[in-house]
Structures are given as structure tokens and as C-alpha cells.
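To: structure desk
From: M.T.
Subject: fold request, one chain
Message: Could you run this one when you get a chance? Sequence is below, nothing fancy, just the single chain.
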Amino acid sequence: MIAHEGLRRLANLAGIEPHYWDIQGTYHETSPETARMLLCALGFAVEDDAAIMASLSALENKEWRTLLPPVTVCRENERVAIPLHMPTGVASGARLNWVIHMEDGTARTSEFLPDQGSPEIARHVDGYETHRYSLLLPSDLPAGYHALHLDGPDNEAVMPLIVAPPRCYLPSELADGQRLWGIAAQLYAIKSARNWGVGDFSDLGGLVDWAAERGAAAIGLNPLHALFSGAPENASPYSPNSRLFLNPIYLDVTAVPDFAESAEARALVTSPDFAEMHRAARVSSFVDYSTVTHLKMMVLEKLYDSFRRNHLNKEGDVRGAAFRHFQSDDGQRLLRFAMFEALSGKFGTNDWPRWPPAYHDPSSAEVISFACAHRDRIAFFQYLQWQTDMQFAAAQRRSMRGDMAIGLYGDLAVSVDRSGADHWAEQDIFAGQAQTGAPPDPFNALGQNWGVVPMNPWRLRETGYAHFIAVLRATMRHVGALRIDHVIELQRLFWIPAGLPASAGAYVTYPFEDLLAILALESHRNTCLVVGEDLGTVPEGFRERMAEANALSYRVLYFEKDGDRFKRPADYPAMAAACISTHDLATLKGFWAATDLGERARLGLFQSEQEQSGAYAERAHDRWALLQALAEECLLPGGADPDKPETVAMTPALVTAIHAFLARSTACLLMIELDDLTGEEHQVNLPGTMLEYPNWRRRLSRSLDDLIRDAGVRNLLAEVARERRLPSVMQPARREQDTQT
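Reply: Done. C-alpha cells follow.
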């Protein structure tokens, strides 16, 4: 009984929730086995009763053993009290000088005399009576990353001090109450007359120009995180190799400056064997990731050789100097990522736990020796990131020249693949003995395991949130908006112990207010709107807190219902990004035809015939309810009988009507799926499948060039733009704009 009680107390203190309610209101209790395994993943010793009690004691006394906490995060104009812990003998008569070293190089100084204040509480720690005092800091500290330095007899400590704006950044148009719209695309799926079988940054530039002419404010993108160059068929952008770097498959190789300088590269591209592989990749209905990666890497290696000869090895060369600056600017993180890529090639796998043990540690002598011996290979992977970063940045500049209010709208995955570079490079930040997912829900009765490794909230705080900050900076720097997938992870994340099914998982809490504050600070630093994908099981009060912080909620038409009716446009919250569908759901055409349900039935994803028939019945009702909603808004196309949905086809007129319906909503941002503009029937990703369905591989059935010439698409976008400009019942989205930081 004592051991069980100790385990329960340790789990609670460590942030493992004792129970949760799923989306259907079913109660789930965390089992002792799950608690024990998750505690182990968090880094606590729990192998026996003695270890559990020792871990509990260490955690309870953790911050009592240090003068300062590992980090403090606060908001502007907030009077913050820093807890100080001092043994009685040390505190008596002590005089502590404190200095806040500001980010801009200035300093604030004063002193703290423990004897002049009363300790808040005391505790016996390590045989000493230790008191807790409060050091009050000025309330007028500017937003930024500062450092508090305490200095006194036998007491010296430094603590990161992060001061953030109270709310995230909003573009002035949204702050003034305008309703904006944009187009969301899976970049890899775009077809064009010039790409190599996968959409690239030049295609993105063309999409930006066309959308800007139509009045769009944003172009939404799938996550562009780096995937695995040695395993290109691992194509899910939500299971990335790294969230800090980009996927070079999106490079337009012919637009790299070195292509014009490399006769070898141009000769390779025009060779018969290359041309044949190139042609096959371009005409395929699915992205042939292996072939496209092979073709691009062959050419890029020749481009790097040309760059090295013509620029890198020439003293005073401008491009050579720019590359060296890029290498140093991203520093150790870029170096480790490039080392990981080179080591993956050496060992024939990116799954670093399968490498020889000496190479598991990125700072080991063996890894350093490898890096010294393979400088050029490592520099090649840094060169790829340099070129990718520049082409992506150019696309965002193009959107600004087109007067888009937002521009590129990026997407941040929940975390990274366990076998990836980010995990290898900073293993202590991640809980490698667990994976993240979702509890059982209507889409998967057994729960979901997303196959990505969670960040350890304790290590995040102990390291001053450095990795979280780096991820935000990397994903925000070239976009005007960032969608955070499963944004609930700021408060809690569903962890699944290694080797157990998703149904055995439990929620682990995160320092929500700290992470939200840092998100606000970085959004201002990067002038980046924040959109939080908050679908699924949402903690009570979470959406309200996010709205208060200027983070847009994510509202999908299919889910926005009041009972058995679809919400009307005026019912949408103003602080929201609305859309018809997502990559995990049916396209509009597929929804109407129930194609997604047919795929689930074909693959045996329904748990029973009753569940399957119920899904079809619900879809039939949804078609009826959507027609009723359109009729109420006087948007129903002529000849469509709202009481006979089985007779109504998904015509271009109906597609336009549904988009106009959502465009009329009070949500301040509307995103239109490119898949719906091209009339795709099959969805991008079918949850619960791996190889059974071509997830993340389907290319658009029509080229970007065809789409641009389509009068029907132009009319649809014109109708959307008209509805978005009309007055609505919405109130201004944010009544005052925060000072830019």
C-alpha cells in the first residue's frame, strides 16, 4: 500500500494525470503500470519501492536545493516575485546584490536583504532548515530574453528571465476587424509544367502570385520540416526528422544559382537516363519520393561541387562568405543536423539507435572524429539547408510584394520521429521511452499512436525552454502565420509508454502559461499570427485562454454543429480560422460521395457492421443538414431540393455555395483547400493506415497552370472575396494591437 501510494504521489507531482475523460465522455483511469513506465520516460527512478520514495523526495525538494529556479517567465507590466531558497545560517545577515542583464546590453541593479523580510515558508532539506523568500522585480521590464544574476556571500546564481507580451501578434487587418481568406495547399502535391514530380518553391511562388491577384491574404502549407533523405518514402510531414530545418525536396534545383555555373549539372539533367526517370516521375499520379529525391540529390551534389570550386574556396567571395555566415548563424544545431545526415549515409539507416553505440552521443570522440574526416560531406548538407532557406524566404518576400496581409502560413508538427536528428542531437530534451498520440475517439476506437517522441516538460524548463524557442524561431522566421498542430500540447499531451497500445496512454501536463508566453513573444518577434489546431479532446477553459492570448481557434465546417444542425455563419467565433476540411478528413467532393467511408470499409477500419452503417447514416444526415443551412442563408443553387439530398450532386455551383456559406462566417480567417478547388475526391491522409492507403503521396489531378486558367475557380474565389468584404455581425477581432516587440 505504501509503495502504491508513493507511486501515485510521484506521478501526480511529476504531472501525469490520474484520469481523463475522452471526447465521448468516457472516464479512463491511469493504471499503475502506465504511471510507472511514464515516470521512467520522464527520467525518474521507479524500479522498486525505495527508488520511488527516493525520487519522490528528490522531486519535492528539487527547487529547495537551489538559490534560484531554473527559469522565470512573466508578462510585461507584471510584478513578478522570484522565489529564493536559502539555509537559515546563510540567510542571516546576508546581502545579495542582484543584476538583471537586459537583452539590449543595459542592466538593472539593486540588492536584497533577507533579514529585512520574513520568509514565506521553511523546510528541512539535507539536514538544514531552508527558508523561501520572495525577490520582487520591477514591473516595467521590457519584453525579451534577459538574465537575473544574484551575488552574495556563499550565494551566486544566474537565471534566464523571459518577459513576454500579454498576447500574440495580430496583423493590423485582423486587429481592425477585417475578415481575411487564403488558400491551403499540400506543396508536394502541386503539378506544374516545369516541376520534377513534386511541387517546389517556384510552384509556390506561382501560387502566391495568382492568389494575391485574386485577393487572398495567405497561402497555407503542409509542414515543410526536414524528413529523411535516406528514407524518402517516409513521407509524413507530421513525423519529421527535424523541426528546426527544411526539406530540400522542395528546392527548384534549376533556380539554384550554381545550376547556371555547372556544365556538369546541366549535362546530367539532359542525359537520356536522367530524362527518362524525370519523365516517369512527372507523369505519375503519386509522388515518387525515391526517384525525385535521387534525381535532385544527384544534381545538388554537382551544384555543391561547383559552389565549392567557384566560391567557397575563394577568399573574399561574396557567396562563399554568405554561406559561412549561414553555417555560423545556425551554429551547433545546424552542424549536428548535417552530421546526422552524413552518419545516416555512413551506416545506411537514419535509425540512430541501430548505429554503433559510440555514435549515439553526438558529442562522443567517435562522432567528432567522423565530422573532422568528412567536413565536405557535412558542408554539403549545410549547403542544402542554405539553398532551401533562401528559396523559402524568397517565396515569403514574393507574398509581401503581392500585398498579402499574412503571406505564407506554415504548419508546425507536434514533435519529431524517435529515430530523427532532433532527438539524436538533444536526447535529454525528449522522453525517448514514450510516444505521443490521442486517446480513443470516433475515428479510432483503439486510440492513435502518432509515432513521434514527446518533449520532456521537466527538461524543457530546466534548460530555459531553449529548444522550444529554437523550434518557434525556425518555423516562424519565413511565414506570416503558423498553425500549431494539436496546440493542446502546450497544456498537456497524451503519452503512450513504449510497447503498450494507445489505449494504455495517459496525459502528461506541460507548463502552459510559460509556453504560451514564449509563443506570444516569438510571434511578435517574427510578426507571425498564431493559429492553434484545437480539435479533439480539449481541456476546459483552454480555448478561452487561447482566444484571450490572440491565438486563433481552428474551426472545421464538418464539426461545427449545434446538435443535429450545422452552425450558421454568425455562430462562428471571431478569433478563429475556419475551413471546410483538413488533410485528415474527406475532401468536399469525397464527403458528399462518402468516398472516405468507402475507403474505411474497404480497409476494415470499422469495428463492426453497426458502426459502419451508423457512419453512413450520419453522413446522409449531414448532407441533408448542410443543404438546410445553405437554404436558410439563401445560397442553395437552383434546382437543388434541400429535402432530397440524395438527388443533389456536388456540382461546381454547390461547391461555390458551400464556400460562400463559410466565407460569410464571422471567423476572422478562412482557408480554402486547394484540393477542393481542383475537385479531388480522395483525401490526403487516412488516419489509422500506413501502407494500405497512399498517405501524403497523391498529386493533384489538375496542374497549377490549368487551375489558374479555370473561369469557374476564378468565379468561386471572387464570390469568397465578395462575402469576406461584406459587413458582418462580428466585433473587431482584437480591440487594441500590442506594441511590436
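Reply (cont.): Residues 729-741 have pLDDT under 50 and may be disordered. Let me know if you need anything else for the meeting.
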